[in-house]
Design a protein that fits this description.
This protein has three helices and six strands; from the N terminus they run H-H-E-E-E-E-E-H-E. By secondary structure, it is α/β, with parallel strands linked by helices. The chain has two domains: 2-33; 52-143, Barwin-like endoglucanases (Beta Barrel), CATH 2.40.40. It has a six-stranded mixed β-barrel with strand order 1-5-2-4-3-6. Keywords: Cell membrane, Cell wall biogenesis/degradation, Lipoprotein, Lyase, Membrane, Palmitate.
């Protein structure tokens, strides 16, 4: 203790400075990553994914304005959708099987969590497929 006051050296100060510098570097790196963890927005489906088939449903109006799993705010007027595993930003062509109508949506949420359903669409996407009245329709998802 006496040597510290005599020499004026405080062994704690360099450790605090190093810790603060390390924290600053981590914050800078995290800031560069963005909301999607640095993966970047995808325009097409990941390689190896050839699509799938099942039921589509659409978000209830009460979800408009709520936060999605990607951090975006859900907009019922946008062409977006929820999928269980496709990366956020992936664009998917959705084709309704009984009438042939199609739309392209961007994945920005997770779900649906109902057996047999493969995608949960925004209200606008459901309108484009003509499924507002039924609420659920058989669809094929394919890479865009």
């Amino acid at each position: 203790m006496l040597s510290r006051t005599v020499c004026g050296a405080d062994p704690v100060a360099p450790r605090l400075l190093r810790g603060a510098l390390a924290l600053l570097i981590l914050l800078l790196i995290a800031g560069c990553a963005g909301r999607d963890g640095g993966r970047g927005e995808r325009s097409s489906a990941p390689s190896g994914w050839n699509g799938e088939q099942g039921q589509a449903s659409f978000y209830a109006d009460r979800y408009h304005g709520r936060r999605t799993a990607s951090g975006e705010t859900h907009d019922r007027n946008a062409l977006t959708a929820a999928h269980r595993s496709l990366p956020f930003g992936t664009r998917v062509r959705v084709t309704r099987l009984d009438n042939g109508r199609e739309t392209v949506v961007r994945i920005n949420d997770r779900g649906p969590f109902v057996r047999g359903r493969v995608i949960d669409l925004s209200r606008r996407a459901a309108e484009e497929l003509g499924m507002l009245r039924q609420g659920v329709a058989e669809v094929r998802l394919s890479p865009e």
